[in-house]
Each structure stands twice: as C-alpha cells, then as structure tokens.
Amino acid sequence: MRNAKWKAATRAAFALTGVGALAAGMAMLLPGTASAGTTLGASATEKGRYFGTAVAANRLSDGAYTTILNREFNSVTPENEMKIDATEPQQGQFSYSSAERIVSHARSQGMSVRGHTLAWHSQQPGWMQNMSGSALRQAMLNHVTQVATHFRGQIVTWDVVNEAFADGSSGARRDSNLQRTGNDWIEAAFRAARAADPGAKLCYNDYNTDNWTHAKTQAVYNMVRDFKSRGVPIDCVGFQSHFNNDSPYVSNYRTTLSSFAALGVDVQVTELDIQGASATTYRSVVEDCLAVARCNGITVWGIRDSDSWRASQTPLLFNSNGSKKPAYDAVLAALNNGTTPTDPPTDPPTDPPTDPPTTPPPGQGGCTATVSVNQWTGGFVATVKVTAGSSAINGWTVGIALPSGATVTNAWNANRSGNTGSTSWTNVAYNGQVGAGQATEWGFQANGTAGTLSPACSAR
Ligand code: XIL
C-alpha cells in the first residue's frame, strides 16, 4: 500500500533543504492509489484531519506492528522516546537515536510527527529531579531549546508542556520542581520552543481536562485564555483523553473542545484510549472532534491492546493479534459518515479562524481556498484549506502566486506544478472528492517569505 505513505501528513513540516531534499519532496508527491474510506488515516484526511498513534521505537522491528502502523495511521507520537529522560539522560548530553528511529520511519512513510514532550514533571532524568530554582529553570529552558532545535522542521506539533495542573477541585497548578521555579515556567517554555522551532505548532497537553465542568478543565482554559490575551505563543491544546471507569467520557466533551477552540487555538485528541474500548464511546469521541472545526486530529495511545500502557484495560482499536475490534469499525464509520455540521453550527460563532479568509466564502458550486501561513525567518509553512461550495466536487486545482525569492521545498496532500512564481496544485487521489460545504487541507513548506498569498480555487 504505497498510497498510505505520504497520504495525509497533515502539515508534515519536514525541514528539507537542497537538491536531495527537493527530490524527496517531489517523491512524496507521486500519486498513489485511493484508499479513502478504508483506513483511519485516509478517512480522517478526507475530513481534513489526521489519525495518529503512539509508537514505541522498539516495536518497529515487529512486522505485524508496522504493517498496521503503515496501513492505518498518518501521524505518530513517540510514546517515550522524546521525553526528557530519553533525550537528555545526563545534563548536557543529548541522546536522540530512539526518537530519530521513529521520526525517520514516519518520514519514510509520509507520516507527520507530534513531539512529546519538552517539559514535564514526570519522566525526568535523575539529574533534573534533583535540581531546583534558577538552575532548574535554566536547565529546563536549555532542554526545550536543544531538543526543539535538533528536530526543527520535522515536528508538526510539540507538546511543549505536559500535565502542569493538579487533579481535584483546586484548579491549582500541580506542585513540582518545575512549578516551584515560578508560575511563569510554562510561558517561558513556550517562548523558548517558539524561538527554537518557529514552524511547529505548540500545544499544552493534559489529562482529566475532558469534562467541561471540572475545575482542572476550567483552570487550563483560563491559562490558555490568559496566554492568548498576552501573546504567549500557544497554538493548540492537547486532550489526552485516557478514558476509564474513574475518568469516563462525558457528553460535554464536545463543549470542552469547542470552548477551547473558541479561544483561537487548535484542539487535538492526543492520547486516546478507552477502558473496554466501547465502540459507542469511540464513535462519540470521533464525532465530537469532527463537529469542531479546529479539532484537527486524533491520536490513539498505541496500536494493539498488547501495545497499550494499560494493556489489561484492552482500550485500543486492535486486538493483541492485530485484528480490528468493533471500536475500529465504529471509528472508521464515524470518520466516513461524519460531516462538519453547518446548519446549525455546532461550533460557537466565537470560533473564527485565526487568519481571515483570503477568498470569498463558497457560493453556488465551485470551491474556495484559504491559506494560513506560519512564517519564520527564511521560510514558511502554508496550510491551504479547500472548501467545496454548495455542491460536492470531484477534484480541485488551486493556483498560488509566490513572491520572488520563495521556493517550495516540500508539500503534502497535493500534486504540485512549479515551485517558484506561479504554482499550480491539484488534489491527490484521496482528497479530490469533497462534499458540499466540506473541506480538505493540504500544505507546503517553502524557503523565503510568503507575504500575502491569494489562492484561487477551481473545481471539477
Ligand atoms: C506513558 C507511556 O505510555 C508508558 O510507556 C510510560 O511507561 C509512561 O508514560 N500521559 C502522557 C504520556 O503524557 O506520556 C504517558 O505515556 C501516558 C499519560
């Protein structure tokens, strides 16, 4: 299934420079066979989302594991290999080999990578656990800077800070050595991450933040609102969503996702597993994400039940023998049936896109394209959204005039003609058919400065 490789690396911002890189970028554009509707990744892509899984480096040599991984998923999160204890086992000595195995596997398959996690109270190496005060603050910032710089351009989204709030009714920060360096440690980490990898989306990630009425959820919400109001560089919030009998899925989950999105951040389901793997609950989670325009992807925390950190709860989509469970069928069906409701809107009207559309809203038939640009010194990632008008379309072409000095180095989910000046982009096999009012996303990375891009869409 070559098609699975580059299929839906939503904003797969691989840093590519030079001729070899350009060749690699071109290779990723070779059209494949359509598999939309038959795998999690392809079906999610049709809805403008990714579908990912946690990956453990030491399982990549298991053929049954990689068969499912390569077939079904288009985003990966290293399960442990990018954590602080793995990447900086001794202070100042960085160790990237396990993480790089995962990144290079993902890259060879055209999957995007979520980086997890730069700053966390847990899985700290011994040297960090023993530190405090300004020395710890400095060590934490150095860690964020070094790791984000090392992987710069290869990580679509970083979980910058993980699990910084306390459980229970206090709504307080979790006590930790990092918290004791000062309440501003979280924003300091985000600023360091932005400086080191300006093209990556930066997430705050936590668990037990699914229930909108919980104090912890509200506390994280207030922090994100504060960050947005003060210009702290945060782009997204990850909801781990480890659901179990003590922390069950609740029907206000959709309200939680849409409320955070209304603050002007993306939301992602980052570590989904459900005790017992109820098909109904899995379906609800997918439907909730699809109902929120800024919910841009779902990651399950492992492939087979035997791969799960909570294996005894059999919480995943595949049995230990690799066969699909009823929950898998429910997720696939939800992805295929799901629509982003427009009448009435499920998202509150207070959830505008960060960037204003550069083309008019869809009219009768046809399509429109809008672009959002993540610019840094010397390069940018452009994410283009193609929205069908009031009729379904069977294919699309988007023209984009690049300013002089801008050169495309890499692209995903689109076929390209030209990499400077007038560029023309067409759908790949799995994202040409877009339902009325529905959208699909694709993108490219380029050297130079984007300026104002004005994409023009025509439909077939
Ligand atoms: C878990 C891993 O799955 C285990 O292999 C490891 O022993 C402990 O960490 N929240 C997170 C993840 O953010 O990093 C955790 O992953 C699960 C809970």
Key terms for this structure?
single chain, 460 residues, alpha/beta, 12 helices, 17 strands, disordered N terminus, binds (3S,4R)-3-hydroxy-2-oxopiperidin-4-yl beta-D-xylopyranoside
Detailed description of the structure:
This protein is an alpha/beta fold and 460 residues long. It has helices spanning 18-27, 40-46, 63-72, 84-87, 97-109, 126-129, 133-150, 185-196, 215-230, 253-261, 279-290, 326-337, and strands at 50-55, 75-78, 112-120, 157-162, 201-206, 236-239, 242-243, 266-274, 295-300, 367-376, 379-388, 396-401, 407-412, 415-417, 422-426, 439-447, 456-459. The chain has an eight-stranded parallel β-barrel, surrounded by six helices. The chain has a four-stranded antiparallel sheet with strand order 10-11-16-13. Strands 14-15-12-17 form a four-stranded antiparallel sheet, with no helix packed on it. α2 packs parallel to α12 (326-337). Residues 1-35 and 339-363 have low confidence and may be disordered. Bound molecules: (3S,4R)-3-hydroxy-2-oxopiperidin-4-yl beta-D-xylopyranoside. (3S,4R)-3-hydroxy-2-oxopiperidin-4-yl beta-D-xylopyranoside is lined by residues 79-80, 162, 207, 240, 271, 309.
